Amino acid sequence: MTDLSHIRNFSIVAHIxxxxxxxxxxxxxxxxxxxxxxxxxxxxxxxxxxxxRGITIKANTVRIDYVADDGRKYVLNLIDTPGHVDFAYxxxxxxxxxxxxxLVVDSTQGVEAQTLANxxxxxxxxxxxxxxxxxxxxxxxxxxxxxxxxEDVIGIDASGAIQVSAKTGIxxxxxxxxIVKLLPPPQGERDAPLKAMLVxxxxxxxxxxxxxxxxxxxxxxxxxxxRMMHNDSIHHVDRIGVFRPPMQTVDELGPGEIGFLTASIxxxxxxxxxxxxxxxxxxxxxxxxxxxxxxxxxxxxxFPVDNAEFEDLRDAIEKLALNDASFSFEMETSAALGFGxxxxxxxxxxxxxxxxxxxREYDIDLITTAxxxxxxxxxxxxxxxxxxNPADMPDLTHVDHIExxxxxxxxxxxxxxxxxxxxxxxxxxxxxxxLTYAGSRAMVVYDLPLNEVVFDFYDRLKSVTKGYASxxxxxxxxxxxxxxxxxxxxxxxxxxxLSTMVHRDRAETRGRAMVEKxxxxxxxxxxxxxxxxxxGGRIIARETLAALRKDxxxxxxxxxxxxxxxxxxxxxxxxxxxxxxxxxDIPQEAFINALKMDG
Amino acid sequence: MTxxxxxxxxxxxxxxxxxAKCPYCDFNSHVVARIDQEQWETAYLAxxxxxxxxxxDRILDTVFFGGGTPSLMSASLVQAIMDRIRRNWRLSNSLxxxxxxxxxxxxxxxxxxxxxxxxNRVSMGIQALNNDDLRRLGRLHSVEEARRAFDFARETFPQxxxxxxYARQDQSLAAWEEELSSALNMxxxxxxxxQLTIEEGTAFGxxxxxxxxxxxxxxDTAAAMFEMTQAMTADAGLPAYEISNHARPGAESRHNMIYxxxxxxxxxxxxxxxxxxxxxxxxxxxxxxxxxxxxxxVERQGHxxxxxxxxxxxxxxxxxxxxxxxxxxxxxxxxVQDLLGRPLPYSAIKQLSDDGYLVHxxxxxxxxxxxxxxxxxxxxxxxxx
Lengths: 599, 385
Fold this sequence. Notes:
Number of domains of chain B: 2
Oligomer: heterodimer
CATH architecture of the largest domain in chain A: 3-Layer(aba) Sandwich
Helix content of chain A: 10-25%
Largest sheet of chain A: 8 strands, antiparallel
Structural class of chain B: alpha/beta
Distance between the termini of chain A: 56 Å
Strand order of the largest sheet of chain A: 11-10-16-7-8-15-12-13
Number of strands of chain B: 15
Shape of chain B: globular
Strand order of the largest sheet of chain B: 7-8-6-5-4-3-2-1-9
Number of helices of chain A: 14
Largest sheet of chain B: 9 strands, mixed
């Protein structure tokens, strides 16, 4: 256990590719935490998908021992946080577990959107922030300009920004000294009842659930009996330790320290991020503020393209759920798609990550149905139904009214893109709540229907602002609106998986956009295919996919027979990636892409 | 198809060299500085002997010199090959011997020699009747030169065919109509009219991938061109007897019919494919593709074959269907089904017939004019599963 004054806890805030991982690697390496021979690039990035998308889904942490220029030995704890709005709550918990942040900006690029979203989280958490200008070894580096930009855009003093090349090692020593000198030590009472914040948790096949904790007050020891304050469940601690980055067991964790515990916990869902852990006896009576259990807000159906893979899909989903408490699922059957699962997610990125992992790690081709939020359907008899799936929409004659979830969206955007952002929010049925300026940046607050946001709002926002907007949201409750179920008919047959709830006033526009998209997404068949959008029995939009006009091989002689046969085989394999609705083959990606709006 | 005689028996001989590589061509053709015609003669004759040993007792119906540009072969080489063929096989009384020729004056100079060697049909790669487009297609001849070579061929050979490529860059329907009518006025008895297909691995393919190949007609225009081609050739007395081939009745390419009717053929020369029956088993054969590799294999290993695959009955059934539906005769349903070992999907046949793509007439199954345009789609439906 380390004296509080010798502990520094910090996170690194950076845009993708600005060198966060390399800097972390270099800090770990230069302090001898990892021997050079064990050094692998990007120690903290775990999954392929995280690396590809430039996001971190799980918090990672490492404990670094550092003997500073003042001759004293310090313990530095680095937490690497998730970096996407879907995981805003998880980020906020990670940020609360540390006292300061290194703000890493690429000196050849400058401040970018992801930097902003996370730096505001750090400011919210009252962090001391140390600006670090990275990649100064490159000819295009312009430290002065980027430092100015940090001051203008973020509004923090960047005059003392440290100039670093994580690649060559320049400035690494200065960074370590700045962490020690500029960041405040944590505070906490060793003798107070135990209060540990649950920062993150994940499942390990050998150890069970591994819980990442920050000790606020008190001392945690191996053998302790602990209580999760949100549900009063009791566990017996069988191991505590720290990451360097490999696990290293320790005897105890005291105030200000960050480490892990295992307690034979079987499921990640028993360990909720933000929860307070205390002792079973003589525990704390008040939990740490800010805990909220994560609730899925976006739902969609996941069906195997090949029905025979249903059991494999079940297996994959159950395994993924072991490690992800925020992801929910239940079995669903669809007339057209057969057996699958209705799944709930924190947001669209979360949905895509889970879907990609199922497809990649378990090799199952999926059909993803239209994402939906939870609607409150009030029936004439006074009953209220929570509608997760538009396909389950009750008969309209029994429905009195429908309420939809709304969010408060906060968007920070450079002045020049403000007009586009306001238009986007208006187009998505937003109600402006606030508009203020901070330097050349505007902060707009909108009350928006969640169903207008879940699908592609964030992508659109990034696209209209060239990536310079940051976005955060919170749920603010339900409100009644004129919502209807829109069905899509392909070749005169309704395709459940494409049903969506839309606002009545937008139905025609959405319907038209969807049928036009589908016309491009469905390959031409031997016959013409009407594609229609309908509300109730009324057609509101219609396109016709013309029959295949020309598809014939011009030359086919003796040497071509073999090649031609291979082509047919390939086409047959391609057909397996489609689902048949009546006589029509619909490619799996059509289900999601049909919903993407261009405006 | 275990009966060797069914569908006929032909010999394909591949000459892999050209004077220049055309940007659309994905055939096995090479441009080299010097060709040792004697070395090639020795290799071809060795392969002809090997092929003959494998196909005794056949009556040879057709010979086809393809390429490449076989009109770059010396007349004496063609003579030597034909002499060996006559020695090795019994010949049909109406043996058809086709040679593909470029329509230049240089090559026309060899026509007499080819005729003496026994060639009785030439197929000329004219490709366009428009000098700008000939240049774009990378052809070395002009329209004038092509017409002269054609006239000379007409005098020399009993049967003459020529090829045109349409649906070219910036070609309008009206421009093709005009070009096709002047082609029909040239009084050939056989025309091969190919829609330009952009193949991977060609110069056009690369330009297309880079977004550089502009002005190609869209699907609807290309379809309209195809339909117009069908109508105009039929009116002129050269109806389509295959997707891209048109002839006066009786002037069809008998060699190519062997491919489409599931006959037997030996392939000689680099990259030549064959389908031969041995001990009741039908095989697909391939030879080494690169000219040098093929020569070396023939000289050192005694044969140029690189691959021999025993075709299952089902393979043969699929092949028969996908080749046979190309011709106006169509296929015998019972023959296809016997080979496939399963019935063709009745519902698909019914639907495609109702939609006007197929005609099911007794045991014959054939595609209609509309069906020809979407033959790949028809095949997908018939072979789905």
